[in-house]
Amino acid sequence: MRSSRRERPFFIEFSGTPKAGKTTIINSLRLFLNRNGYRVSVLVERASTAPIVNKLHVHFNVWTACQTLCQMLDSAQWPERNDIVILDRGLFDALAWMDWMYHRDELDEETMNKIIGFVTIDSWRNLVDMTFVMLTTPEESLHREYKDQVTKKPGRIMNAEAIDRFNQSLERTREKFGKLFPRITEVSTSGKVEPDETGRQVVKASLDTIRTMLT
To answer: What residues does each domain of the chain span?
Structure first.
């Protein structure tokens, strides 16, 4: 793909269950694309640097969503820098977290709808060319989280109930907003699925979509 063929880079978002393997697959996809002549940038999610201490407060998820949006808008204006921009969590992911908070009674419906209206404004929601939703079970997610740690004590988000609810939020988000994010691919990483098998699936789907949109 040549940058001159598009007015902006091609955006790929990765969303999904915590510990579903997003970072591993993003790194694999970036390496593959770089070695095949594509200029690729990864916009890393900013949750770890958020100044909002309470991760269960709506301000935390609004802050992270806005940080991602700022990076997206900046990247979109420089097609000569990158052919492809990969989002480690983006707008679809923000919608899923808002749904999760709403169903935990941490967010009222009026506020949620206002945030949804902002996140889904056409001019930036249309930047997302395709979305991968990486899924795994709560049991597998927690196993990956704690397998190399001394403690097994559940966290406020990293616990079976919270992860199960977030998986439900991901499903509801796709059902409700699937028409706004038409190129969604679900990828399960549970069980005996090997990372390289998942990587091949993601690479193939990415290339197929890129070629389709450029022809």
So the answer is: 3-208
